[in-house]
Amino acid sequence: AIGTVFAIMFGFNGIEGKARNQRGAFELESSLFMASAMSYILSLFGTLQVFIPEKTALVREISSGFYSVASYFAARTLVEFPQDIVVPILYALVTKAVLGFTMDLTHWALIQILMQNAGKSVGFLLAA
User: Fold this and answer.
1) Residue 45 and residue 49: Cα distance in Å, rounded?
2) Confidence class of residue 3 from pLDDT cuts 50, 70 and 90?
3) Which pLDDT belongs to residue 122?
4) Which are the contacts of 117, defined by CB distance < 8 A and separation ≥ 6?
5) Which residues contact residue 76 at a Cβ distance below 8 angstroms, ignoring those fewer than 6 apart?
6) pTM above 0.85, yes or no
7) In the 3-class helix/strand/coil scheme, how is the chain assigned residue by residue?
8) How far apart are CA 28 and CA 11, in angstroms?
9) Which of 10, 22, 88, 122 sits at a 20 to 30 Å CA gap from 32?
10) Helix 22-63 and helix 105-127, axial crossing angle in degrees, nearest 10
11) Dist. CA 52–CA 58, nearest whole Å
12) What pLDDT, on a 0 to 100 scale, did the predictor assign at position 16?
């Protein structure tokens, strides 16, 4: 939900970027950068907010032998996989529609999926 709000906000920032001059190109490029960076940052902070409180229970359960680290992350990855694909695609749809740029939607969605997963990975690294 918050990602959609940011996507629309960056779209309105880049609305003047549809002009065919240097300033319009700069505004469109800055909006694309901010849209990609926001996908990364939202994923990073989302992971930090969830994983840090979970960490103490996770350490206690792993040390008690309930499950291994590999099984925890495999289960977490499997459960979050649909969200990790659908949310960036929706974000890409909104930003592409609002900004009106000509990149293929498949490539833009793939960039957003990679940015979100990179942010999530850095979140796990910082929380560990």
Assistant:
1) 6
2) low
3) 92
4) 43, 84
5) none
6) no
7) CHHHHHHHHHHHHCHHHHCCCHHHHHHHHHHHHHHHHHHHHHHHHHHHHHHHHHHHHHHHHHHCCCCCHHHHHHHHHHHHHHHHHHHHHHHHHHHHHHHCCCCCHHHHHHHHHHHHHHHHHHHHHHHC
8) 9
9) 122
10) 40
11) 10
12) 52
**pLDDT by residue (tens digit) across 12-70?**
655 554 556 666 677 777 778 888 888 888 888 888 888 888 888 889 988 998 888 89
Instruction: Provide the percentage of residues in the chain whose pLDDT is more than 70.
Output: 81
The two structure tokens encoding residue 91: 């974000």
